[in-house]
Structures
1.
Amino acid sequence: MARLPRLYAPDVPQLVQAEFAQPLAAASDPTPLTQLNRLQEWLQRDARELQVALHGWLLLNDRITLLATPPDRQALSRLMQALGRRMAAGIRHGRVYKGRYRSALIEPGRWVLPSLVWLETLPVQLHVVDKPSSWPWSSAAAHTGSATALAYLLSDHPDYWHTGNTPFDRQANYRKLLEHGLASSQIERIEQALFGQWALADDDFLHSLKTRATRRTSPAPRGRPRKTPLISDTAESTP
């Protein structure tokens, strides 16, 4: 089956994930602090150079996950390629990514915050840390006020700003979102959209994307399309 072209629509955020061909360290080894710090520096530099607005990020031993709005249809591909080249030259030689990165368009006002919570709670889901803000290579600490020095990496989405009138309100309200977590149905929809590389949106927003997106935004219905009866057949069956 031919792979789908990249899905893009202007001014629409994307959830992106790329898995490494080889983890930065074995599971039994200590956390690769130096490699993760370098990767975070590269992410900040390349995202700024390519004008990609980072709303959330997560660097793990085996993957990169981002929530971002690119300025054009090529910017995210260029960002992931730039990070791959830097890793190949500065961390390990040879193939960096397991395959193509996955991405999904995210509906603002409805799915941006759930996608951000999903991204930032991955270290907890994977039993790496006990709370999201404890993982240093993530936007969670900046969003909750635990490490404001990391805020330079962020271009907060309006959905995050709408959680409160002041930085303290936003941080406190967002902490509650992280603590509450997501319903299993929300997690399922996010992962289906990301791994299927579709849009994560409700029907009205999907309809609005038809004239803006670079390709189909949701899977085609299963099975063969229904046949439209011929006029002659309809006429013959009419008494």
Note: Residues 230-239 have pLDDT under 50 and may be disordered.
2.
Amino acid sequence: MGSTSDKISGKTNEIAGKAKQAIGKATDDHSLQAKGAVQEGKGKAQVAAGKAKDKLKGAVDRL
């Protein structure tokens, strides 16, 4: 994946994870809350990977 697609997928997963957590909290569904937290964490990792790719590309371009 490219850096942009990593960041987009990451933000999508973050938003979906937060939504699952909110629904899980509202319905007292601990399993859904946990799945949402995992998905949000995955999204944050994807965004971080996209940013790291951008930095790496910038460093290579400067050489």
Note: DSSP finds two helices and no strands in the chain.
3.
Amino acid sequence: MPTLGRMVPVLTYQDIPAAHDFLVHAFGFVAGGVERSPDGQAIHGEVRVGDAPVWLHRVTAAHHLDSPTAEDVANSGLFVYVDDVDAHYERARTAGALIDSAPVDQPYGQREYGARDLEGHRWWFAAPVHAPRS
């Protein structure tokens, strides 16, 4: 069986530069830049989450790709682990992320919250809940 390599999430946006800047500002991702066609149209963007890239793809009928703004349907999302869920939540909320759920301790041992970016992609952020020391 072939060995699997890394996985790169691809998210489709109507406005790649705005999405790129939002993800960097609101969620603290590392900027990877925006590539443009010779006529100046944004065709690809990238941000990094830790060591993992996230590619920002343009809306294109040829590839049957559209932004969640076309139809508000929950069909996927991305889960990111952070070191301080509450601080991350405040950063995202202050930057204008649509908050789906505030930080809450889950029975499966992590604290998490849900948010959407400026075009509606769903994101969840979490950290392990550490048991209090006796």
Note: Residues 16-27 form the longest helix (12 residues).
